[in-house]
Every structure is written in C-alpha cells, then in structure tokens.
Amino acid sequence: MNSNFALLNNTKKTIAYINKQLINYPRSEVILKHNTEQTMYEIIELIFSFSINDIERIKLKYLKDLIIKLSMLDFYIATSFEKRIISKKKFESTSLFIVEIRKIAYGIIKNVKC
User: Fold this and answer.
1) 3-state SS of the chain?
2) Whole-angstrom distance, CA of residue 111 vs CA of residue 114
3) Which of 14, 66, 78, 80 could crosslink 85 through cysteines, CB 3.0-4.6 Å?
4) Cβ–Cβ under 8 Å, residues 14 and 98
5) What distance in Å separates the CA atoms of residue 52 and residue 59, rounded to the nearest whole number?
C-alpha cells in the first residue's frame, strides 16, 4: 500500500507543478492546454481506479493505461517545449517528475504480477 501512496503523492505534486505552467500558455494553444489538463485528471482517475479494484487483471489494465497517459503527458510537455511555451529547465524538471511516476508504476506492475 506504501507504493500506492507514493504514486498518488508524486502525481499530485507533478500535476500541481504542471498547473502552474499552464497559466502561461498562449490562447493560440488552447487545444494543447486542454489536452494536457484532461490527461492529468485522467491520470488521477486511473490511480484511484487501480486502488479500488481487487482483481489483478483489472489492476494491471489500469496501470498500463496509466503508463500510456503518462507517455501522452510527456508528449504534450515536449510539444510545449518545442513550441517555446515552456523553458528547457521546466521541460527537464517536468519530464523527470513524469519518469519518477512511471518508475513507481512499473514497480507496482512488477509486484502485482509476482
């Protein structure tokens, strides 16, 4: 249960960090901003869905969906950097947060399969 808390806690911190960056997105990038916000909320939803379910197969599905959403979030952040919406430092730090969440998720997958 400790890893579930770490997963949720790190995700909340990352989302709070990204939300601070989203304020500065230009109006011309409304779709990118909207997709980033939506993906962040879906990530939280997948974590809660994972913790509630008891069946291993369903838990693994939610974790795999979580990893897909993390990859999409990483893509949106990379696109924001390429369009010069966020700085290189913010891009790198956000990517490190996402990588940390992904590592925790893969660790949980490894433990669930055992």
Assistant:
1) CHHHHHHHHHHHHHHHHHHHHHCCCCHHHHHHHHHHHHHHHHHHHHHHHHHHCCCHHHHHHHHHHHHHHHHHHHHHHHHHHHCCCCCHHHHHHHHHHHHHHHHHHHHHHHHHHC
2) 5
3) 80
4) yes
5) 9
d(CA 37, CA 33): 6
Residue type, 50: F
pTM, full prediction: 0.92
Tens-place pLDDT, residues 33-70: 999 999 999 999 999 999 999 999 999 999 999 999 99
Rounded distance between C-alpha atoms, residue 14 and residue 12, angstroms: 5
Q: CA 23 to CA 3: how far, in whole Å?
A: 31
pLDDT at 114: 60
Residue identified by tokens 């700085």 is 87
